[in-house]
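Deliverable D4.2, example record:
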Amino acid sequence: MKLDNGVLHLSAAFKQYPHTEKLMRGEITVPGLHLDCLDIEPIHRAFAPMARTQAYDVSEMAIVTYLQAKAYGKSLIMLPTVLAARLQQGCIVYNKRRDPLGVIDMPGARVGVRAYTQTTGMWVRAILDQTYGVPAEKIEWITFEGGHLQEYQDPAFVTRAPAGKEMLQMLLDGELDAAVFGNDLPSHEDIAPLIPDHVAADKLWHEQHGFVPYNHIAVMHRAVAEARPDSVRAVYSLLRQGKDAVADPIALRKRVPDGLEAMRGPLEQIIGFCERQQLMPRKIGVDEIFADCLHYLGADAY
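Output generated by the structure prediction step:
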């Protein structure tokens, strides 16, 4: 955070989406504020520095990382806006060159995931549990890195892959039965979705739950908010204007909504999934999260 000729400059870490690209290029502005956007690719590399030391003034963040950061008392506030969401059932895959594999085979299976705390992994586990009756603890989860919060310790049914191993290669070599991928979902000819009708399954999940699973939200450094409360409203305005600037803002907001009213029900479910999967060090209520939003944004938070 710095002032330059009366303009407040905030460091910001966002991925470029249709609804963020114009504000990242400076084409969408608010008086008195400028976001100095950093080029961090992939964006998940921004999450640990932001969660641990508040390395940026404003940042995109995985919802599980934020919830853990909140539980551990990190100096962050959530803005009531979703930046990224997707349907998840195509994200768990297996090697079709080996034995046939289905959801029924998941108990006792070795399943790779980048980190146990990865939000995509949380969603896949929630769906396996809630929809298919396979709880997380019935699977042997193999991870390749730790979580974004150093205080967090993985559950006993999670083990770390040997140093130097790569998840895709372990899957191809038969060292994993299945694996969860996010934006890095492989297009290898031998890799197939574990849930063959995942598109139809996701459609049904969406109809039953009424929202697209959230992956990323936006957060701000609490110290910035306390020093410049007006900046919270300004950043939130920029993010909302970015969504207004896309070709079909109504359709976009059905997938990545704004506001406490739209986000309450999904967040309650996400918190429940995290608790069941032993991701949370303490209980958190939605109202605890929303208190910051209401303090800085008032009625605009809705």
